[in-house]
Structure formats: C-alpha cells, structure tokens
Write a structure and sequence with these properties.
mainly alpha, binds protoporphyrin IX containing FE, single chain, 10 helices
Length: 213
C-alpha cells in the first residue's frame, strides 16, 4: 500500500516534468522564435502520449500479472486531460486570443481542429466520472461503457495529428501503430472471452446431442 503511494507520488512529479520543462524554457528564453508553436506541440504530444499510456495499463497488468498497476491508471488519465486542457487553452488564449470568429473560421478551414476538439470534448465526461463515487453512482458496467470513450479519444487524437502534419507523417504513424497494437490486444481478449462463454453455454448434454447429430 505504501509502495503504491510512493510510486504514485513519483509518477505525479514525473507527469509534471513536461510542464516544468516548458516553464523553465519560457523563463530562460528557450522557446525559440515561435513559443506558441512549441507549447502547442509539446502539450499536444503529451496529451496523446498519456492517453496511450492510460490505454496500455490494462494489457501491461494482465501480461505481467502486476495487478497493482491499475492503481496508477486514474492519475495518468487525469494528467492526459490536464495536458489536453493546457493544449486547448494554448490554442484559445495564446493562439487565437479568445477570438471566437477566428476559431470558427479555423474549424471550417482546418478539419484537424474539429477532430482535435472532438477528442478533447470526449475526455471531459471521463475526467468528471473518474472518482470512486462516480463508479458507485453509475454502476460498474455503465461506468465501463462510458469509459470506452477513451478509445475514440485516442483514435481522434491520432487522426488529428495525421491530418495536421503536412510532410513527414512518421511520428503520427508511430502513435497510430502503438494505438493499433493496444486496440488489437483488446479485440483478441474480447474474442477469446466470447469463445469461452459460448463453450460454457454448450452443456455436456448439448454437446453429446451435437456429436450424435
Ligand atoms: C481541444 C481541441 C484541440 C485543438 C484546438 C488542437 C489544436 C492543435 C494545433 C493548432 C496544433 C498545431 C498544429 C500545427 O502545428 O500546424 C496541434 C497539434 C497537436 N495536437 Fe492538438 N488540438 C486539440 C486537441 C488535441 C487532443 C485531444 C490531442 C490528443 C489526444 C491532441 C494532440 C496533438 C498532437 C499530438 C499535436 C502535434 C504535436 C507535435 O507536432 O509534436 N490535440 N493541436
């Protein structure tokens, strides 16, 4: 229990490092000629990295049998939302200076903004229902169903990145490959559980009849 607390504390500090690095660079003139671009790219990158990390907890804990890892998932997911919020705020405040007209124009002209915005909006209910009391209120099954939205957020996040990059698509494709593996893992597990369930449904009597037929 204490070990988990310590790991969570270290993870908390580690998750703040990208923000600290940006702050340090900002204070020491290290953000280059286009600071808004650097902040947008860094916060966008970390949002996607943390969404994918959240999705990797389940396979990791099942494959390594380190079941305690589930205790870290909520914090990582909330940090994904935190960086997503910073990314969004960078766009609204620093890039567009709250100019709603300019933002609407941008949405029409640049579909990757619409996709990024959708990915972010889908994260809001996940962050709002991340508490234990929300799980109790919604019921485990409903909560799980709602939290499948993270898959859509991840897919839209990768599409957002793919669409905004004009020339070298290697990095978004790498994120896409990681996401494909994480989704494939779930499909394989889901298919094998379905097979097991239908095997249980075939009782010995049914199977004897089936063999005779
Ligand atoms: C809230 C809505 C969002 C807006 C308005 C937005 C806007 C932007 C903009 C303007 C850029 C820079 C584009 C350029 O350089 O031409 C960007 C980059 C990026 N965004 Fe978003 N975004 C949003 C949500 C998201 C979300 C939810 C994710 C992840 C799940 C994400 C991941 C990224 C990534 C990975 C990059 C590229 C970073 C890099 O170049 O290294 N964005 N976004």
């Amino acid at each position: 229990m204490n070990r988990l607390r310590l790991i969570k504390f270290v993870l908390f500090l580690a998750a703040l490092l990208p923000l600290g690095r940006l702050g340090w660079k900002a204070l020491h003139g290290g953000l280059g000629a286009n600071p808004i671009e650097v902040i947008t790219h860094s916060t966008g990158d970390w949002t996607l990295i943390l969404v994918l990390t959240t999705l990797s907890i389940t396979p990791l804990r099942q494959l390594t049998r380190q079941y305690w890892l589930i205790g870290l998932r909520r914090m990582i997911g909330l940090f994904a939302f935190f960086y997503g919020t910073l990314h969004f705020l960078t766009y609204i405040v620093l890039d567009k200076f709250f100019d709603v007209h300019e933002m609407l124009k941008d949405i029409g002209k640049r579909p990757f903004i619409t996709v990024g915005f959708s990915a972010f909006v889908l994260m809001i209910p996940l962050a709002l229902t991340s508490t234990a009391s929300s799980i109790r209120r919604l019921g485990g099954k409903n909560w799980q169903r709602l939290h499948r939205l993270i898959y859509l957020t991840a897919i839209l996040g990768v599409v957002h990145y793919l669409w905004l990059v004009k020339a070298d698509k290697r990095k978004p494709l790498e994120y896409g490959a990681v996401l494909a593996v994480l989704l494939l893992y779930r499909v394989v597990i889901w298919a094998s559980e379905r097979r097991k369930r239908s095997a249980i449904r075939v009782t010995p009597r049914n199977s004897a009849e089936a063999t005779e037929a």
